[in-house]
Amino acid sequence: MQICGGSNGVFRSEMTRARRALITGIDGFTGRYLKVELESTGWEVFGIGMSERFDGGNYHQIDLADVESLRRLVAEVQPDAVAHLAGIAFVGHGDANAIYRVNLIGSRNLLEVLAGADKVPEAVLLASSANVYGDAAEGVLNEDAPLNPANDYAVSKLAMEYAASLWMSRLPIVIVRPFNYTGVGQGEQFLLPKIVAHFTRRANVIELGNLDVWRDFSDVRSVANAYRRLLEHCPAGETLNVCSGMTRSLREVMSMAGSITGHSMRVEVNPAFVRRNEVRSLCGDPAKLRRLIGAWDTPPLEETLRWMLGATE
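The structure corresponding to this sequence follows.
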C-alpha cells in the first residue's frame, strides 16, 4: 500500500491555494453530500454532472464520453483529488448498453485523462459496489470474499475495477465497494426512500418484494465522511468495503418506520420485485476501512430513518 503525501499520511497541496477536489456525478445523491463534506473541511470543490443546472459554483455539464471536454477541464482545475461517483447506480436499470457505456467506458475515459494530465492528482477514489460479491456465501464479507456479480450493473462495476488495475502504476487509485446506504434526497426507485415516501403519504398499501432479505445499511453522510478521509489519506492501490457491519431485514425496516410514524400499512408482495438469485443476507466487514482511516461508524438505521421521515414532513 502506498500512502500519498507528507507527514501523518495526509497530502499537502500548494500553500497558495486551497486543496482542490473534482467530483464526477456531483449532481447525484452521493455527490451532493460529498461536496458538503469536503467544503466543510476547507476543500475547494469542482464538479462534473449531466444536469443542465446544479446549485453550486464550479459546476460543469460534461458527458464522460466527451474526452476532450474532460481533458480541458482537468487541465484547468488541476485537482489534487478526484472522486469518481458518476454512473448508473440503479440495479434495475433497463438499458444494459447504457450501464456499460457509463460505468465502464466513462470510467476508463476519466482515468486516461487523469493519467495524461500535466498535474496528476494525488488521490483518485473510484466508487464500485458491494454488488460485485453477488451470490456470495452467507456471512460477513471482507474484501477477499469471492466475486460473483449477478447482474449487468454488478458486472459493469467489476469490469471498472479490472480496468482501473491497468492504471494503478500511473495513478494513486483507491476503490470503494459501498454496501447499501441511504438518506434524504435518494430517489424513490431505491427501496428505503420508497418505504419512507409511502409512510410520509400515510399510504394504506405498499408493493414490495421479499421482506425477509437482510442488508447492511449505512447513512450517506457517513459514507461521504469516509470518502473524504480516504481522499486525504490516500491508501493507493487498496480496495475497501464501506459498510456498517450489521444487517437489518426489510421486515424490520417496515416495523421501525411504523413505530416512528405511528402509521401502519399493508404489504403486498409483487413477484416482479423479487429478484432472481437474490442473496438472502449481505453484510460487509468494515475492519479494513477503519484500520486505514481510523475510527469510523454510521448512525443506527433507525436514526437515519427518523432523519428521512422528518425531512419529508
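The longest strand covers residues 44-49.
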